[in-house]
Amino acid sequence: MRPRLALVPGEPAGVGPELCIRAMQQPHAADIVVFGDRDTLARAAGTLGLPVAFAAADADDDAPGTIRLVDLPNAVAARFGTPEPANAAAVIAALEQAAAGCLAGRFDGLVTGPVHKANINAGGIPYTGTTGLLAAQAGCDVVMMLANDIVRVALATTHLPLREVADAITPAALERTLRILHAALRDDFGIAAPVVAVLGLNPHAGEAGHLGREELDVIEPLLERLRGEGMVLHGPLPADTAFLPAKLAGFDAVLAMYHDQGLPVLKYSGFERAVNLTLGLPYPRVAVDHGTALDLAGKGAADPSSLLAAIETCARLARPRAIARTQGSTT
Hints:
Blueprint: E1 4-8, H1 16-23, E2 31-36, H2 38-48, E3 53-56, E4 66-71, H3 88-103, E5 109-112, H4 117-122, H5 130-138, E6 143-147, E7 152-155, H6 162-168, H7 171-187, E8 195-199, H8 214-227, E9 232-237, H9 239-242, H10 245-248, E10 253-256, H11 259-270, E11 275-279, E12 285-288, H12 305-329
Helix pairs in contact: 1-2, 3-5
């Protein structure tokens, strides 16, 4: 019943390879296969002074320090702290091949380390983020949600300039986001009747139209319609008070209208254990909630807590797929 997870360390010049080496020094409630460059991982292990042994992806060996590997060599040797655009293709290949394995049923979930967007684009590959890449590959709509032990925060818009946010919050887009979020809370997290707090866009949730009309014209009418279908939706709520602990206790998730409306609160409340989930894919995908930390790469100082939390979360979400796969193979 152990789920099979694909793990992509991410940018080879960042802390991802070191975090991967640290994570694989301990047992996990999943069988993990790493997609990445063997030489980079070996050098990361040497930097950390930790043992590492490489095995074939289908090997039956989960001893601590052993990495079952799909070797995807970099074009040039990675230098910790200095991204090489020539290696962008290897990073994308790792993501695409690992995700393809999930779509084909060979893996039950995907864990991803930090990638360097600017370096991938510098390598000639148009790239706005792994969330969009995986959604395009799977041909589905997705929602970004970050979570820790205290709060789950989903996003109505993601990496947009602030001046474009209001135009992006349309009834259709907001409905799609809420339906994906509601289904994920119910089906993936096992919450029978999810309670979602929906934030307003404007200060004080628009102050009855005095500080903006998005709440009156877009958000509230949609919430009323979805409530009529049985969804439990609170809002639109003022963002400056919605995260008070007494209120959060009654919510299963918070839907923020834009990136910096909700994520600073989540990261302040528990950055080390925070993870980034892509809801709506046909498999669970969980990522670390931090960047490549180039200034720490190769120094052995990076904290693996977020990667460990991502593996733990993905294994938990992937277990039903593993059970279904196992049952299917015996019928």
